[in-house]
Design brief:
The chain is 34% helix and 17% strand. Strand 4 (123-126), helix 7 (131-144) and strand 5 form a beta-alpha-beta unit. It is α/β, with parallel strands linked by helices and 267 residues long. The chain has one domain (13-238): NAD(P)-binding Rossmann-like Domain (Rossmann fold, 3-Layer(aba) Sandwich). It starts with a helix and ends in a 29-residue tail after the last strand.
């Protein structure tokens, strides 16, 4: 496969980077990335993955665009209020880069449909706002041996990590063994969230995904990045494997997906 002249022109600022080059750009064009959620995190992540030339992007979201989304979900506009988010998102991403393929899945992920969906992609980015979805996505990525870029946000703080236990790194359950009790942790609708924070964390997800596709830079697979927007502080902490992890430990008790994951909205 060779890049066309229009592709060379479109991605020229990226191609001149020695870490990318023409071969790296071809890698990006062959990559298939699935976004769980076309909301606050999926919006900036999707925009930058599309602009970078990631060849196939999947959008999974069962919601429709609401006026209250537009403060942070920049894939959408006032004109697309009421439209399924995945269709609104596909329209925006293909307008930015008509060369890529954008697959829209107007549905929620569950224990029955998630593994067949993951088979079609190389990597997953999780933009959900509830622990049930995060644990489902983590567990499914573990069984499917897919790299997962996970981000979350709450009010003015965001967190980011890369999860790939198939390469010997810890899984999400090594950090959070079990979901908290229902109702204990408020979602963004209840607690609020800074719109620009979603942009920061989603762009970081896209950056980490591009690094993983190209095999460059330092992985975040054994670290957790914490960002405080009020103090403008980033800090990284080690995220070790849990030898007692029920999923990726030496004596796992979670050996398949069950139906106990209660999936709700995305950020």
């Amino acid at each position: 496969m060779e890049l066309t002249e229009p592709q060379i022109q479109r991605y020229s600022r990226q191609i001149i980077l020695s870490e990318v080059g023409g071969k790296g750009q071809i890698k990006l064009s062959k990559a298939k990335v699935l976004l769980i959620g076309a909301g606050g995190l999926g919006s900036p992540a999707g925009l930058y993955l599309a602009a970078a030339g990631v060849g196939t992007i999947g959008l999974v979201d069962g919601d429709v665009v609401d006026l209250s989304n537009l403060q942070r979900q920049i894939l959408h506009s006032t004109a697309t209020v009421g439209m399924p988010k995945v269709e609104s998102g596909r329209k925006t991403l293909t307008a930015i880069n008509p060369e890529i393929t954008v697959n829209a899945y107007h549905q929620l992920v569950d224990a029955d449909n998630i593994l067949p969906l993951f088979k079609e992609y190389d990597m997953v980015l999780d933009g959900s706002d509830n622990f049930s979805t995060r644990f489902l996505v983590n567990d499914a990525c573990f069984f499917a041996k897919k790299t997962l870029i996970s981000a979350s946000m709450f009010r003015f703080e965001g967190q980011l990590t890369t999860i790939k236990p198939h390469a010997g790194y810890p899984c999400y359950r090594c950090l959070y063994p079990e979901p908290p009790p229902a109702g204990l942790v408020p979602n963004c609708q209840e607690a609020g969230v800074l719109g620009a924070l979603a942009g920061t964390m989603g762009i970081l997800q896209a950056s980490e995904a591009i690094k993983e596709i190209l095999g460059i830079g330092e992985t975040m697979a054994d670290r957790l990045l914490i960002y405080d927007a009020l103090e403008m502080k980033f800090r990284k902490v080690r995220r070790p494997k849990d030898p007692a992890c029920r999923l990726c430990g030496p004596a796992p008790t979670i050996t398949n997906l069950n139906s106990d994951y209660t999936v709700t909205c995305t950020i």
